[in-house]
Design a protein that fits this description.
The complex is a heterodimer. The radius of gyration of chain A is 20 Å and the shape is globular. By secondary structure, chain A is an alpha+beta fold. In chain A, the strands form four sheets. Chain A has a six-stranded mixed β-sheet, covered by helices on one side. Chain A has a two-stranded antiparallel ribbon with strand order 7-8. A two-stranded antiparallel ribbon of chain A has the order 9-12. In chain A, helix 3 packs antiparallel against helix 4 and helix 3 runs antiparallel to helix 6. Chain A starts with 13 loop residues before the first strand and ends in a 41-residue tail after the last helix. Helix content of chain B is about 35%, strand content about 20%. In chain B, strand 6, helix 5 and strand 7 form a beta-alpha-beta unit. In chain B, helix 3 runs parallel beside helix 4. The chains are: A alpha+beta, B alpha/beta. The interface between A and B is medium-sized, with 22 and 25 residues.
């Protein structure tokens, strides 16, 4: 969390574009091009197509996050996301950033087209003979991958960050050494109450039907996480939480778990304040027995952020007993 | 099953003059297939067919979901350059395919044709077959992106095209030009299948420039 004790904000690491040993080529996306560096095998450089539209303050808030965290949280962040680590300027102009390279476990090798990311889209369509190089997770592995995705969302929400542009391509997965997810394109994240680095429309078919305004919120993250989980677990890209019997396609799930996931889906299909938190999804996807305590808590849909999980920097306050019970 | 699909047709000249580059074209088709098969959202939203033409026209790959296809018959260079046979066959295929896709519950976006030829038409009357294909009286009339190589007349390519036209500029060998053509077709399918309208419908994307080719302005009517 941002220090609130009057200490100065951590320094933002900045590198000049001219100092980078950039390898030409790279993959071009909608907002920028990701390039390798000749002298750093652990980092890649993303250069934005249109530097004139960038919000430098938003990138600086992303870059300051690791320095404000405990060692354990920083490790969690960097092990589970391709989080930006240095801003890149061309003179005084912000043009891009360095981020960790996506670890090799999240790639597969196609005999014709070579190295490809194990994007979440591969979890959302049935296996095909022509995609032999893509491993097919078991139900238990799917649950573990999706739980890991929900935990990443819960972690970022707990640190007052919104994921933003959630889609079948912005999160990748692996089976080995253990089933897990990894968040990429983290420059789409934004700190609660602040604008993102670059305005982003929802990816079509990943839209939040109740989204208000142009900016993603924790409530829209919660809805899109439901899409990620429902589509990944049902292996059906068109899945929506409004579908009747949303987990009916998974009779192989333990009945109590199926019921818990169905309850969360139905809540995700309702008004903003009923949308389940990422932590609730993570819990339902786990292998522990479920204890139903209450209806899902309200989600936020505006500038005010309510953490969805205990924050180690702001532990729950002790209860004050006001009167003795007989 | 996807609600909305965008059909792509590759209509490729197999006349004898294509001999030098036909292997590169077949190699490009293999890469196109792998690229789309490895991109499930794109495969779900697009369909792909190959029609080869020389003295007549032959459907080498009926309109297919490329994720289901394990082999594509290769193009082979032979015979003349009958545009008319290609356009007639293409119209028949589009009519049949659109009907089938609709019967399967899809809504079908206007088909896209990538047309490639390296020589002048050897048949007469091809213009009327082309007019039948692109006439608004044919409800499923396609958008045509036309590429010309070697001997083909620039005006012929402009006449065939209804969306964009490109002419090889002679700066690269025909083999390289064919690889760039195949790469451009692949990018167009991947980007169209990924660039969805708000409704989730794929939206046609074609590069403005293709290495080795000059973009031709289409006449306005």
């Amino acid at each position: 969390m941002t220090p609130n004790n009057g200490a100065p904000a951590p320094r933002v690491p900045v590198r000049q574009r001219s100092s980078l040993a950039v390898v030409e080529g790279g993959d071009s996306g909608g907002q920028g091009r990701v390039r390798l560096l000749r002298d750093r095998s652990d980092l890649v450089y993303k250069e934005f197509h249109d530097a004139g539209k960038l919000d430098r303050g938003a990138m600086d808030r992303i870059l300051r996050l690791p320095a404000t965290m405990s060692e354990a949280d920083r490790s969690t962040l960097l092990c589970n996301t391709a989080w930006p680590v240095e801003r890149v300027d061309d003179g005084s102009r912000f043009v891009g950033f360095l981020m960790g390279k996506i670890p090799s476990e999240f790639w597969y090798e196609d005999p014709v087209v070579g190295h490809r990311l194990l994007e979440f889209q591969h979890l959302m369509f049935p296996p095909r003979a022509t995609r032999k190089a893509v491993p097919e997770p078991s139900t238990a592995q799917r649950l573990a991958i999706l739980r890991s995705a929900a935990e990443i969302f819960a972690f970022l929400h707990g640190h007052s960050f919104i994921v933003g542009d959630v889609s079948m391509k912005n999160i990748v997965w692996s089976l080995s050494p253990r089933p897990r997810a990894f968040l990429i394109d983290c420059d789409g994240c934004r700190k609660v109450s602040y604008l993102p680095v670059l305005h982003q429309a929802d990816t079509p078919e990943w839209d939040d039907p109740l989204r208000q305004g142009n900016t993603s919120t924790e409530a829209s993250d919660r809805y899109k996480l439901a899409l990620l989980i429902g589509r990944g677990l049902n292996v059906r890209y068109s899945w929506r939480p409004t579908d009747p019997d949303p987990f009916g396609a998974r009779p192989d799930l333990p009945e109590k778990q199926r019921q818990a996931l169905t309850r969360l889906s139905q809540a995700a299909a309702g008004p903003l304040h009923t949308r389940p938190s990422a932590a609730e999804w993570a819990s339902a996807l786990g292998d522990r027995p479920m204890i139903r305590l209450s209806a899902p808590g309200p989600s936020t849909n505006g500038a005010v952020h309510q953490p969805t999980q205990p924050n180690p920097r702001n532990p729950a306050r002790p209860k004050i007993r006001l009167r003795e019970t007989p | 099953m996807s609600e909305q699909v965008l059909p792509f047709y590759l209509v490729c000249d197999e006349s004898g003059s294509m001999t030098a580059g036909i292997d590169d074209m077949n190699d490009g088709l293999g890469k196109l297939h792998a690229e789309i098969a490895n991109n499930p959202v794109v495969a779900d939203k697009t369909r792909f067919a190959v029609i080869g033409f020389s003295d007549d026209a032959e459907v080498l790959l009926p309109l297919s979901d490329l994720a289901d296809v394990e082999e594509i018959p290769g193009l082979t260079a032979k015979g003349g350059t009958c545009f008319g046979a290609a356009f007639k066959r293409l119209k028949q295929e589009i009519q049949k395919d659109v009907g089938q896709l609709k019967a399967d519950g899809h809504s079908v976006l206007r088909p896209v044709v990538f047309f490639l030829s390296d020589g002048q038409a050897t048949d007469r009357g091809w213009e009327s077959a082309h007019a039948d294909l692109v006439s608004p009286s044919f409800p499923a009339y396609p958008k045509i992106v036309a590429f010309g190589l070697e001997q083909v007349d620039e005006n012929t390519i402009k006449r065939v095209a209804t969306f964009k036209a490109f002419m090889a500029d002679g700066g690269v060998s025909p083999a390289v030009a064919l690889r760039e053509f195949a790469s451009s077709l692949t990018k167009s399918i991947v980007r169209s299948g990924s660039t969805l309208a708000g409704t989730g419908a794929p939206t046609l994307q074609v590069e403005d420039s293709v290495p080795g080719f000059t973009s031709l302005p289409l006449d306005q009517i």
